[in-house]
Amino acid sequence: MKPTVAPFPAARFRRLRGTPALRALVRQTHLDASDFIWPVFVMAGHDDETPIASMPGVTRKTVDRIAQAAREAHALGIPAMCIFPYTAMAFRTEDCAEAWNPDNIANRAIRAIKDAVPEMAVMTDIALDPYNINGHDGFVEDGEIVNDRTVAALVRMALAQAAAGADILGPSDMMDGRIGAMRAALEQEGHQKVAILSYAAKYASAFYGPFRDAVGASAALRGDKNTYQMDPANSDEALRLIERDLMEGADMVMVKPGMPYLDICRRVKDSFGVPTFAYQVSGEYAMMQAAIANGWLDGPKVMMESLMCFKRAGCDGILTYFAPEAARLLNG
Ligand code: PBG
Q1: pLDDT at site 221
Q2: Chain-wide mean pLDDT for the chain?
Q3: How far is the CA of 137 from the centre of ligand 1 (A)?
């Protein structure tokens, strides 16, 4: 469809921008608390939380406080939370066995949220990095991140999370073949209802820095993730990855990071029309918070604009650390 524009002065675009009512009437994109998945960090202990220096306003919370946060999020109309564990150093090993421990901190948080707020959709992260002595998402053998042995471990991790009550599994590891392997195992073990939101187009990005502080993986990580996460220069590859993951049984797909990759979001939505999410990652959050703290940007405005832009780019929802603050604003 070719847009039609009458010549000036028949067409004056400012007519429809003249009042809040007219602007509301012609607004194409809407943001709602139901668009958000709230990523939270969980740590051991009781009734406690610790700030994350590079992510102002974000804390690591003990399981009981995560349950409390779920109650608050639910009251705000946020439909989903995503759990990331801060694993004690003693539980980080080369074999990553803590990753599929039914009682690890992430699985305890899943159960605590489902107990406190059964309606809350609980999403998980599937990758070995919080449990890996060397900070990588997969097993390291002779300096190489090995694929197939990692996939088998990720499947065990996925089944433990499903058994703990997770509604949405989020494989973020970028190994090949993991979605198909997880889907087959879930079907076989009676977890037909568990959905997979694949981190399908996940880039090897420098914007994850503050997150790695939050989960304590920064110091551990040796080398980079360039052999498994995507090259930021590539676009067509993202579509092939999305298609591959959908064919293997992903229910929803994600583009990550968010703001610098809105072109990818748009291509994905236009090409496949599937539930598409973006992750406004820790570095994006940190950048905005730093500028806000300096008084260089207006906090509420820049937060809402950044989130709206994901919707405009075709996303159905956004993983964002701003979720509770933005929901509070949206609810008036
Ligand atoms: C773990 C994982 C990462 C993020 C989500 N899951 C870090 C990484 O891949 O190194 C980043 C999230 C963020 O930066 O907010 N695989």
Answers
A1: 86
A2: 97
A3: 9
